[in-house]
Structure formats: C-alpha cells, structure tokens
UniProtKB/TrEMBL annotation:
InterPro entries: ATP-grasp (IPR011761), ATP-grasp_RimK-type (IPR013651), ATP_grasp_subdomain_1 (IPR013815), RimK (IPR023533), Rimk_N (IPR041107), Rp_bS6_RimK/Lys_biosynth_LsyX (IPR004666). Binds 2 magnesium or manganese ions per subunit. It comes from Petrachloros mirabilis ULC683. Transmembrane segments: none annotated. This is Probable alpha-L-glutamate ligase. The gene is rimK. It comes from the Bacteria.
C-alpha cells in the first residue's frame, strides 16, 4: 500500500513509529506536512498537491492533525476523502472530537458514563451551574485546554465561584464537572483501533496532583481493564465515529466515566508502558480496511 501520514514533523515519536511500522510491513510510507498541501477543488478531479505534484494512488491516510491546526488539517483530510482514499480517521470525526462539549453531549446521548458536567454562558448563572454538578469540590476546565493546562480543582463553593468568574471575565469557555475524588489522581488511557482496545495504561499524577497528565509529571504503567471499562472505551470511540482513538477514563464509584476521546493519541507513552506495537496495529487496521472503503460517517451530531 501507499500510505500518507499527515504530520507537521517527521521527527515526532508517533509519526516516526507509524512510518517505521508501515515500512516494516512492506508498505511505501510518506510523511507529508499537511500545512504545505494545497488543493484544487473541482467537480471532476479533486487533487491534493504537495511540492508541485499531485499526491496520487494513495491507498490510506493517517491524519496526525495538531489541535491548533484543526481547520486546515481537516480540510486536507476531507480532500483525500473526496478522492476516495481511506483515512484512519475521517475529517468529520476529527472535528467533532476537538470540541469537548460536543464530545460529551454525544457520549451522553449514547448513555456512556460521564462525570456529571455542566456549562453555561453567562456569569449570572454561576450558582445554578455549581448546583447542577452537586456543589464543591468540583473541576473547572477550559474548553480549549490540553495536557492538563486549564484544568482546575476548586475545593470550596467560594473558590469555584471566583475561578469561574475569572475565566468568564476573560471570555474563556469553560465546563464544570463533578470531581471524581475516588480516582485518586489516576486515569486510564485506552487505545481503541476499530472495535478493539489494543492497549491500555494507567497514568498516576505526581504526589498531591489530581491531574494525571504525563506532561504534568504523571507516571504511566500498564493496566488490566475490566470488561466494563473495555466496552465503555469501545462504545465511546464508536459514538464519536473514530476508528483510531485514545479514550480517557476515570474509575468512579458509579463505574467507568469517560473524560475525553482523542483523535490523535500519542504513541510514545503507551508503547513504552505496555510494550505493545501500537503503530503496527494501526497499520494492520489500514491493511484490513483500506480496500473496501465503503463505511462513511453517519453520526448525526
Ligand atoms: P486535558 O485534556 O487538558 O488533559 P483532562 O480533562 O483530560 O484535560 O484533565 C486532565 C487530568 O485531570 C485528567 O487526566 C484527570 O487525571 C484529571 N481530571 C480531569 N477531570 C477530572 C474529574 N472530573 N475528576 C477527577 N479528576 C479529573
């Protein structure tokens, strides 16, 4: 197969591993900077052009679109879809997953366990908002945040109120969430490919830190999932329409709750923690599915 990895940098761990894994399985793999792709949008012959030449006879695309480049990145993926190329994740599913609120609304509709979550636009509604999630302690999240930045634990009602007012004063969009204390600063990242969890790790926050992000000093180790956690992760990925995803779960008193579904999950942490060739499994999935490229995103939201 001819595989194109859409990534801004060939030296990034995940990009490098996907290229290696593809080549090890006998494929021709190109890393293409999607910001340097340009397109001709005509009815008869849509193309993606890179360094002056159309990218032709591509069998599969692996999008690794950075959060800050979603708009242009998904346009490039969409153009490949127009040409009929199979993609590890469809453009619509990537856009959908980038919006945390939309993501939670879709998961809720499917009856997937979530931390009780609220959001509001006006600061006049703060008290009602805090009440909907059961009062303090609670977690406040910036909708645009990643890697744990902009995730704040407010221990008291007053603290919650001030933080929400401060964020809203800056015009930042936030959501407010029940604090899952019993998770003890641990979360679970499930790597879902197709309809299977192919690897899972737990991440534990640094002492005194409720956020388990590796970027915030957390540590990772492999973990055995319960059947319920496994099926929650698969259902969450499916609800979002993602073929390859990282589903983040907390262990709560009321069962597994999903925090987020990521469309470009990093491979470094999970390959190191589990010793599983995640990149190889993603390429294997493309081998099985690229030929009969018939399924289309049918999620309505
Ligand atoms: P980001 O997308 O920036 O990583 P997350 O929503 O994943 O933000 O939150 C970062 C970390 O904070 C999570 O990995 C988890 O450990 C912790 N966390 C987030 N939400 C909650 C919550 N409602 N209850 C307990 N811990 C939480």
């Amino acid at each position: 197969m001819k595989i194109v990895i859409l990534s801004q940098k060939a030296s990034l761990y995940s990009t490098r591993r996907l290229k290696e894994a593809g080549e090890a399985r006998g494929h021709e793999v190109h890393v293409i900077d999607y910001l340097r792709c340009y397109m001709n949008i005509t009815a008869h012959k849509p193309q993606v052009i890179y360094q002056g030449k159309p990218l032709s006879e591509v069998d599969a695309v692996i999008p690794r679109i950075g959060a800050s480049q979603t708009f242009y990145g998904t346009a490039v993926v969409r153009q490949f879809e127009m040409i009929g190329v199979f993609t590890a994740n469809e453009s619509q599913a990537i856009s959908r997953s980038r919006d945390k609120l939309r993501c939670l609304q879709i998961l809720a509709r499917e009856g997937i366990g979530l931390p009780v979550t609220g959001f509001a636009h006006s600061t006049k509604d703060i008290e009602g908002l805090i009440d909907t999630v059961g009062g303090a302690p609670l977690v406040i999240k910036l909708l645009e945040g990643t890697q744990g930045i902009g995730v704040v634990l407010a221990e008291t009602y007053q603290a919650a109120k001030s933080v929400i007012e401060a964020f809203r004063g800056l015009d930042a969009n936030i959501l407010v969430q029940e604090f899952i204390k019993e998770a003890g600063g641990m979360d679970i990242r499930c790597l879902v490919v197709g309809e299977k969890v192919i690897a899972a790790m737990k991440r534990q926050g640094a002492p005194g830190e409720f956020r388990s992000n590796l970027h915030r000093g957390g540590t990772a180790a492999k973990i055995k999932l319960t059947p319920e956690e496994r099926s929650t992760a698969v259902r969450a990925a499916k609800a979002m329409g993602l073929r390859v995803s990282g589903v983040d779960i907390l262990r709560s008193n009321h069962g597994p709750v999903v925090m987020e579904v990521n469309s470009s999950p990093g491979l470094e942490g999970i390959e190191a923690a589990t010793d599983i060739d995640v990149a190889g499994k993603i390429v294997e999935f493309l081998e099985k599915n690229a030929k009969n490229n018939t399924s289309r995103d049918r999620i309505k939201y």
